[in-house]
Automatic annotation (TrEMBL):
Active site: Y145 (proton donor/acceptor), K173 (schiff-base intermediate with substrate)
Record lineage: Bacteria, Bacillati, Actinomycetota, Actinomycetes, Jiangellales
KW Lyase (keyword) present: yes
Family recorded in the similarity comment: Belongs to the DapA family.
A Pfam family reported for this protein in Swiss-Prot or TrEMBL: DHDPS
Record's protein name: Dihydrodipicolinate synthase family protein
Record keywords, A-Z: Lyase
Length: 317
């Protein structure tokens, strides 16, 4: 429920939760539960489900809502959960999609910047659409994700300030990949409920020191405990340790880019207690021993450093 006086979302690691599938590409609901527990145990501050990493465009509307409800129920208040309303086109369709997703019990419904309006639409029309969605859902908190698909739409600074000043937005997934842009956005968000969660792992340390609330990106989905540690200790741990973890996370995220998200699932199958298959609807390509060996080597190297703990205790295979 919306409450303008309520606290902002917690700072830290916000994984973009992967969606586990069976070999026939049906949703593996048992592993959805297991992954939710694993992310919470790994120190996630919150969970972003029904995101691009969760293959939201390749899920049916019923699957998206069921997934959000399942994660909310499994999290059981241990961490907040946000999920995307995956609808574009007519304003009423977007309003209805938000209402349906809000009904799953998520803490905030995330709007996709590039679905709110088309690439040729003006910023005024984009804002008018968002305003109509807010007016029609007065008790709902919102997030905003600058998703790169179907096209990438970055919010101009006046729009970011407008979102912050509405008092209705609590989650902003920044995909600008620019610390200068992040700095400006944080300045206009100051004093509001809106938190900026960087999507780019390589600039996480810099953005945290500017005041970012945390990370919502690939790295948080495969090494939530390391991202959580970096978010918690960026200012009080030895600088060499901070730099080492930052570099390690950057390399780990880069290693899964080519066949993501199946590559991330493959890595987790060899580095965690999860029994997740490297199966994807979005990019249904197989990962064999040749492609997977570097991921296994990386997982074993990170494990050998003794950095990964918590969720991974007893989980590496």
């Amino acid at each position: 429920m919306h409450d303008a006086a309520s606290a902002p979302l917690p700072r830290g690691a916000w994984p973009v939760m992967l969606t586990p599938f069976h070999d026939d590409r049906s949703v593996d609901w048992e592993q959805v539960d297991e992954m939710t527990d694993w992310l919470v145990d790994g120190g996630a501050a919150g969970i972003f489900t029904v995101a691009l990493s969760g293959e939201m465009y390749d899920l049916t509307e019923d699957e998206r809502r069921t997934l959000a409800r399942r994660v909310v129920d499994r999290a059981a208040g241990r961490v907040p959960v946000v999920a995307s309303a995956v609808a574009g086109g007519p304003v009423q369709a977007q309003i209805d999609s938000v209402k349906a997703m809000a009904g799953t019990g998520v803490d905030a419904v995330v709007l996709i910047a590039s679905l709110v309006a088309g690439p040729a639409d003006t910023e005024e029309r984009w804002r008018d659409t968002v305003a109509a969605i807010l007016d029609a859902n007065p008790d709902v908190d919102f997030g905003l994700y600058e998703c790169p698909l179907p096209y990438k739409r970055l919010c101009p600074l006046p729009t970011v300030e407008w979102l912050a000043r509405t008092g209705r937005f609590v989650f902003f997934k920044d995909t600008s990949h620019s610390t200068d842009v992040i700095r400006e956005r944080l300045e206009v968000m100051a004093g509001t409920r809106l938190g900026l969660y960087n999507a780019q792992i390589s600039s996480l340390t810099a953005s945290l020191r500017l005041g970012a609330a945390g990370l919502s990106g690939y790295a948080a989905s495969i090494y939530p405990e390391l991202v959580a540690w970096l978010c918690d200790h960026v200012d009080d741990a030895p600088e060499d340790d901070v730099l080492a973890v930052q570099r390690l996370l950057t390399v780990a995220e880069h290693s899964i880019n080519s066949r993501y998200p199946a590559s991330a699932k493959y890595l987790l199958a060899h580095s965690s207690r999860l029994r997740i298959r490297p199966v994807s609807r979005w990019r249904p390509s197989d990962i064999g021993d040749h492609e997977g060996r570097p991921l296994v080597d990386l997982a074993e190297y990170i494990d050998s450093l003794g950095l990964a703990s918590g969720a991974r205790a007893g989980g590496g295979r």
